[in-house]
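Q: My collaborator sent me two sequences in one message, no labels, and asked for predicted structures for both. Can we handle them in order? The first one she listed is below.
A: Yes, handling them in the order given. First sequence, followed by its structure tokens:
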Amino acid sequence: MDIDSFFKIFVPAIVAVIGVIIGASLQYIYARKAETNKRLQILKTKAYVDFIRSVSSIAMSQNFGQNLKVKY
């Protein structure tokens, strides 16, 4: 096998394998980042809902003169 045959056969295969590895790695990284952002958004939304519920409970207790217990 001479050097031309080596370059014609193995170099494209090696480049393809390296491309697949890089592509899979980038997909994994971006998928993890997207999942982390999704979970963070869900936690933020839950925190906002809890805050609004607490504020509304306080406002209701002040309006009606009741001592409502704020549920967490």
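Q: And the one she listed second?
A: Here it is, processed independently of the first:
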Amino acid sequence: MTNVKYANLTTLDVGRPSSSAGEEWQSFKILFHDFADLPSAVGQCTRSPEFTCNGHRWCIKLYPSGHTEARAGNLSLYLRLCSGGYATATFEVSVLDKYQSIKRIAKSATLRSFSSESKTWGWPQFVSRSYILNQANNYLDDNGTLAVVVSIQRDSASAAPFVPSNPIRGMIAGMFLDEKTADVCFEVGSADVHDGDEAAPSPVTFHAHSFILKTCAPMLASLFGSDDDEVATATITDVKPDIFHHMLHYVYGGSVPDAELNTHVKDIINAADKYSIVNLKLEAEAAYVKSTKITMDNVIDNLLYADSMNLALLKEAVMDFLAENHDEAVTKDFSNIPGHLMRDLLVAFGMSKRAGKGNGKEKDFKAMRVSELRMKLAKAGLDVDGSREAMRPENPAPNSVPKKNHFAPESQISLIFQKITTMTASTPPYAPSTTDGSTNPYHPDNLTESISTDGGRGINYLERLSSCLGLDISCVRW
């Protein structure tokens, strides 16, 4: 029996190899499904999808009943050069049996030249068609599929030339914590009061560049004033220095190691949410969902956490768990669950019932999975952070951002604000101004403008604040 040739197979030599050893080949398997039903008149061919090798595009041309009348009744197989220009190739074509062993193989005797005048080389009488269709010969698998493998010897001279990748990302990453070129810095430390003689740990300084922050992390950039005379400093006391290091490194194009991400996942989610590093938040959320086993003991805690931080993927995982374990879930006490979460649970039940029953039409945004919804929004240039409701546009348009017209008239919003403003608003995050005197865009008095200019962040904040006050803002949406 002929041995199968494996693509990219690593060979280890014992002793001195022969001069022909070490030749590298690239193989492509082509499956001709329903072979018996392929066009079978003499001269009719079926072409495979194109594949690339040695910098050129190729395909296989298969004539089930022969290329010409002289070869009628025989399978004809040819390798064709699909890209323009000139190419050479040493190649072989084999047909496998239903057990994926080589049934018949043919090899080019010499290096073949392909050009615009001679685009194909092959075998006009590879094997009898009737022989293939005879089930006793085991050419076709149980589904009637014929497997053809073409192998082409690699040619290093024909390979695509090496072109270095764009260095800009590496350059930006190299500026991370570069004190010489930095024009702003963060002093990150704990604001905890220590008793007795115990000294508070000194804050950790992180140097940064305002132009990078303004583009990649606007909320961090907003912590600084407009003083151009010296390096501006901002103090951060609500994020641990090691967590801030990961977050700032991410802003400069870096990544958080998996071990660190899993160890500090909640701290990273909280920090990324607070400072609107959206992609880092979503990456950490995905890691949390992957590493967390949801049980009846922690399902409510995870649901409340997902809702408080607008973690749509985690909320979906919780809802899936409740939908799958509804008989046991009805025994739990959900009295402390906000009422709007019941709507999400109904969506989860509805999606579980409709699973596998697609009608071929575009899915309803209300029932779309979170990852799919985020993918569509990202392609349309829309905000992918926030609750399912905040993410769900009626008709997403490319390169558009959420505008005020996603809401009812301001008169309806003002009714919500009238109730919100009755609360005590003397301390952050509800104070009219931040500690440095600048306007707090998320104070109730400023929320209308915030929603218009800050898109989903203002929307998400309004949802959170109203939920804490027990208000239903579903009427605010169209």
